[in-house]
Amino acid sequence: MRPDIRGTNEYRVPDTMQAWVLGGPEELSLVDKPVPEPGPAEVLLRVDAIAVCATDIEVLQHGRPAMIDGELPFHKNWTPGHEYMGTVVKLGPGVDEFEVGDRVTVEVHAGCGRCERCSEGMYTSCHNYGLNYGDVDKGHRANGFTTDGGFCEYQVNNINTLVSLQDEMSDEEGTLVVTAGTAMYALTELGGLVAGESVCVTGPGPIGLMAVAVAKALGAQPVILTGTRDNRLKIGLELGADHVVNIRKTPDVVAEVKKLNGGKGVDYVVECSAATSAVNDAVRMVNRGGRVCLAAFAHEEVPVDVAHIVRNNIYVYGIRGEGKSATHRAEAYMRQKRFDASKIHTHTFPLEELPTAIRYAKDRVEDAIKVVVKAKMGASQKEAAE
Ligand SMILES: [Zn+2]
Ligand SMILES: [Zn+2]
């Protein structure tokens, strides 16, 4: 909670705010926008911190997987950004689950609540995904993908996307809960991982590194991480990897992973690298009957040895987001300090410097991993000035 505004219900919400909007590909501009109004089952959040995600960079360049009005998100006065945390500053009609002043982080997807997948808890695969424009409002929202996101000062969120944060967790770490939540969803709900199973994570990006941390916290043994950068592999070791493999120095990564797992394939591979060869490597790294989760966006069609998958009864999952409330369970692990997610946070910039923050994340300037922008400095300065 924010003690300064907790329970006051008196937070003065301005009429307009600063918000980044996307023009053409990679054209961001900072504009004034009306502060949105929370509807039923929604709150207004003051966005205190937001992380730049690889998917944001994908969206800014190519549009997908964001879709606004059923089209690519260019020139729609649309605000990207989805990995944010903030403070509740206004409650929508009928909301009594949260109070003004509560600190929360968000998961991305608010399902429609009326389709088969939402009923099953798979709201990140909502059948009404993106159907919330014009006269169409099926209730689905994915802020930063199909509705306005968090690269701005205020945003509305359905209360089913909110995860309460304890005061001890920093704003920056709070933005990483959804990343850990995605790793959690990959490991437990999709992959059914149980303690003692062996895991290999390919690709030490933010989700890969969180997959290492969550797998270890869940009791996986051994946890192996493969990648090309020693500095990131070192962070993997700090987050709980038992072994790391630099594939630049190891010609046969499949053989090496098997060797590290006592001569046989692992139970589960979480593929986070998007390398063209990674899918075939992954299906060869698992043992018979093993599972593979594909968590990275490949940029081209990838050849796959289907016969090997069939012969060996291998399960392959695609993952979308952080379903089945995995984000809540990730926060519970972080609250217990089962791993230190802040190890992957490397840089913070003010909201006005978003393009610099994106460049750092995209080009890995100064070995950047997770880059966070914070609007709060600006917001609190303004409050003080008023
Ligand atoms: Zn993301
Ligand atoms: Zn749905």
Write the layout of secondary structure elements.
Elements (H helix, E strand, L loop, with lengths): L15 E7 L5 E7 L7 E11 L1 H9 L20 E9 L11 E4 L2 E2 L5 H4 L21 E2 L11 E5 L3 E3 L6 H4 L2 H14 L8 E4 L3 H12 L5 E5 L2 H9 L4 E4 L6 H8 L5 E6 L6 H8 E9 L11 H6 L3 E4 L7 H10 L9 E6 L3 H10 L6 E5 L1 H10 L1
Parallel strand pairs: 10-11, 10-13, 11-12, 13-14, 14-15, 16-17
Antiparallel strand pairs: 1-2, 3-4, 3-8, 3-17, 4-5, 5-9, 6-7
Helix pairs in contact: 4-5, 4-10, 7-8
One zinc ion binds next to loops.
> Main beta sheet: strand number and arrangement?
7 strands, mixed
Query: Considering DSSP H and I runs of 4 or more, what fraction of the residues is helical?
Result: 25-40%
Listing every helix as H and every strand as E from the N terminus to the C terminus, the arrangement reads EEEHEEEHEEEHHEHEHEHEHEHEHEHEH
Strand content: 15-25%
Specify the overall morphology: globular
Q: Which stretches are low in confidence, meaning pLDDT under 50 for 5 or more residues running?
A: 378-386
What's the end-to-end separation, in Å? 23 Å
Number of helices: 12
Number of strands: 17
Bound molecules: zinc ion
Radius of gyration: 21 Å
Mean pLDDT: 94
Multimerization state = single chain
Descriptive overview:
With 386 residues, the protein is α/β, with parallel strands linked by helices. The chain contains twelve helices and 17 strands. The protein has helices spanning 54-62, 116-119, 171-174, 177-190, 206-217, 230-238, 253-260, 278-285, 306-311, 326-335, 354-363, 376-385, and strands spanning 16-22, 28-34, 42-52, 83-91, 103-106, 109-110, 141-142, 154-158, 162-164, 199-202, 223-227, 243-246, 266-271, 286-294, 315-318, 345-350, 370-374. The strands form four sheets. Strands 3, 4, 5, 8, 9, 16 and 17 form a seven-stranded mixed β-sheet that branches. It is globular, with a radius of gyration of 21 Å. Residues 378-386 have low confidence and may be disordered. Residues 53, 55, 82-83 line the site of one zinc ion. Residues 111-112, 115, 117-118, 126-128, 140 line the site of one zinc ion (ZN).
